[in-house]
């Protein structure tokens, strides 16, 4: 598979280049960066892997729809409108949209889903994430997805029940609440913890990434998986064949 890599000068773009070259089933069909012609870059390629900037996603997908090319979106921090544009494009082309491509984090999603079902009554949930000081968006896409998974299982709603940090006289913690806490510093690749706490005990599920190659090789795996897929919106759990039941 000939792959177009967007955001090529970035931390992830460089890691994806290495992962595409390392995989015998993929080759670099082209690269793209800010200001370059996306239509021309996409032309010789079979699929796109995007780790760039959320504001670029709509333009990228419009071109992929025109050229009928599958897309892997790893970029995070999208607005509601940009998320709607992703869902709309996925009606015409196959799209994998995942906040995290590592097997470990997708296992964390699975474990958190199971824990949420068992601990649904009486456990308070808090999410903590830490990333390098360059990161632009907060909370991380992974932390957001973690909260969405837990909300689905604990009858909560991301917009209504997730609070981002706390300050001042916040009062007694409501039961239906997920506290979200984002830390930034140094060169941390990406740490995520889901805490389930009740009187007398707590469970902490933690994933720590120490290299971007787990994200990069996962995104190549997703692109190859898309080759024979019909139009639709998929995530990395679909690629890995994890059950959401
Ligand atoms: N899903 C996952 O598994 C992971 C997702 N990510 C996400 O990937 C994204 C990129 O992360 P990272 O590589 O660290 O970021 P970087 O800032 O290192 O790289 C971003 C890249 O995108 C380019 N870019 C910036 N703005 C635009 C634009 N408007 N149009 C086209 N290209 C643009 C940059 O170009 P220039 O250098 O010229 O500004 C650069 O090449 C983030 O959203 C991050 O959260 C990161 C890791 C894993
Ligand atoms: O920006 C990053 O670096 C990362 N972003 C992703 C996110 O927002 O969840 C995934 C990973 O944690 C690294």
Automatic annotation (TrEMBL):
<keyword id="KW-0457">Lysine biosynthesis</keyword>
<dbReference type="GO" id="GO:0005829">
    <property type="term" value="C:cytosol"/>
</dbReference>
<keyword id="KW-0220">Diaminopimelate biosynthesis</keyword>
<dbReference type="GO" id="GO:0008839">
    <property type="term" value="F:4-hydroxy-tetrahydrodipicolinate reductase"/>
</dbReference>
<feature type="binding site">
    <location>
        <begin position="74"/>
        <end position="76"/>
    </location>
    <ligand>
        <name>NAD(+)</name>
    </ligand>
</feature>
<comment type="subunit">
    <text>Homotetramer.</text>
</comment>
<feature type="active site" description="Proton donor/acceptor">
    <location>
        <position position="131"/>
    </location>
</feature>
<feature type="binding site">
    <location>
        <begin position="7"/>
        <end position="12"/>
    </location>
    <ligand>
        <name>NAD(+)</name>
    </ligand>
</feature>
<feature type="binding site">
    <location>
        <begin position="98"/>
        <end position="101"/>
    </location>
    <ligand>
        <name>NAD(+)</name>
    </ligand>
</feature>
<feature type="binding site">
    <location>
        <begin position="141"/>
        <end position="142"/>
    </location>
    <ligand>
        <name>(S)-2,3,4,5-tetrahydrodipicolinate</name>
    </ligand>
</feature>
<feature type="domain" description="Dihydrodipicolinate reductase N-terminal">
    <location>
        <begin position="1"/>
        <end position="101"/>
    </location>
</feature>
<comment type="pathway">
    <text>Amino-acid biosynthesis; L-lysine biosynthesis via DAP pathway; (S)-tetrahydrodipicolinate from L-aspartate: step 4/4.</text>
</comment>
<keyword id="KW-0028">Amino-acid biosynthesis</keyword>
<dbReference type="InterPro" id="IPR036291">
    <property type="entry name" value="NAD(P)-bd_dom_sf"/>
</dbReference>
<keyword id="KW-0521">NADP</keyword>
<dbReference type="InterPro" id="IPR022663">
    <property type="entry name" value="DapB_C"/>
</dbReference>
<keyword id="KW-0560">Oxidoreductase</keyword>
<comment type="similarity">
    <text>Belongs to the DapB family.</text>
</comment>
<dbReference type="InterPro" id="IPR000846">
    <property type="entry name" value="DapB_N"/>
</dbReference>
<keyword id="KW-0520">NAD</keyword>
<dbReference type="GO" id="GO:0016726">
    <property type="term" value="F:oxidoreductase activity, acting on CH or CH2 groups, NAD or NADP as acceptor"/>
</dbReference>
<comment type="function">
    <text>Catalyzes the conversion of 4-hydroxy-tetrahydrodipicolinate (HTPA) to tetrahydrodipicolinate.</text>
</comment>
<dbReference type="GO" id="GO:0051287">
    <property type="term" value="F:NAD binding"/>
</dbReference>
<dbReference type="InterPro" id="IPR023940">
    <property type="entry name" value="DHDPR_bac"/>
</dbReference>
<dbReference type="Pfam" id="PF01113">
    <property type="entry name" value="DapB_N"/>
</dbReference>
<feature type="binding site">
    <location>
        <position position="132"/>
    </location>
    <ligand>
        <name>(S)-2,3,4,5-tetrahydrodipicolinate</name>
    </ligand>
</feature>
<feature type="domain" description="Dihydrodipicolinate reductase C-terminal">
    <location>
        <begin position="104"/>
        <end position="240"/>
    </location>
</feature>
<keyword id="KW-0963">Cytoplasm</keyword>
<dbReference type="Pfam" id="PF05173">
    <property type="entry name" value="DapB_C"/>
</dbReference>
<protein>
    <recommendedName>
        <fullName>4-hydroxy-tetrahydrodipicolinate reductase</fullName>
        <ecNumber>1.17.1.8</ecNumber>
    </recommendedName>
</protein>
<dbReference type="InterPro" id="IPR022664">
    <property type="entry name" value="DapB_N_CS"/>
</dbReference>
<dbReference type="GO" id="GO:0050661">
    <property type="term" value="F:NADP binding"/>
</dbReference>
<feature type="active site" description="Proton donor">
    <location>
        <position position="135"/>
    </location>
</feature>
<dbReference type="GO" id="GO:0019877">
    <property type="term" value="P:diaminopimelate biosynthetic process"/>
</dbReference>
<dbReference type="GO" id="GO:0009089">
    <property type="term" value="P:lysine biosynthetic process via diaminopimelate"/>
</dbReference>
């Amino acid at each position: 598979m000939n792959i177009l890599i967007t955001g090529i000068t970035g931390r992830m773009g460089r890691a994806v280049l290495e992962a595409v070259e390392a995989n015998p089933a993929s080759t670099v069909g082209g690269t793209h960066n800010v200001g370059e012609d996306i239509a021309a870059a996409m032309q010789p390629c079979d699929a796109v892997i995007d780790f760039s900037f959320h504001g670029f996603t709509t333009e990228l997908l419009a071109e992929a729809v025109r050229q009928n090319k599958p897309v892997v979106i790893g970029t995070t921090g999208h607005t509601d409108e940009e998320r709607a544009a992703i869902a709309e494009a996925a009606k015409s082309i196959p799209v994998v949209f995942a906040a995290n491509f590592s097997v470990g984090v997708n296992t964390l999603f699975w474990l958190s889903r199971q824990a949420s079902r068992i601990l649904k009554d009486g456990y308070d949930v808090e999410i903590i994430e830490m990333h390098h000081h360059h990161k632009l968006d907060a909370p991380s896409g992974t932390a957001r997805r973690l909260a969405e998974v837990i909300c689905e299982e604990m009858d909560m709603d991301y917009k209504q029940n997730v609070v981002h940090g706390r300050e001042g006289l916040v009062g007694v913690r409501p039961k239906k609440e997920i506290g979200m806490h984002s830390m930034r510093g140094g060169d941390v690749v990406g740490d995520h913890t889901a805490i389930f706490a009740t009187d007398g005990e707590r469970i902490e599920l933690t994933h720590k990434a120490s290299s971007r190659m787990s994200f990069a090789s996962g995104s190549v795996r997703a692109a190859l998986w898309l080759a024979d897929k019909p139009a639709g919106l998929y995530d990395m759990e679909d690629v890995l064949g994890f059950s959401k039941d």
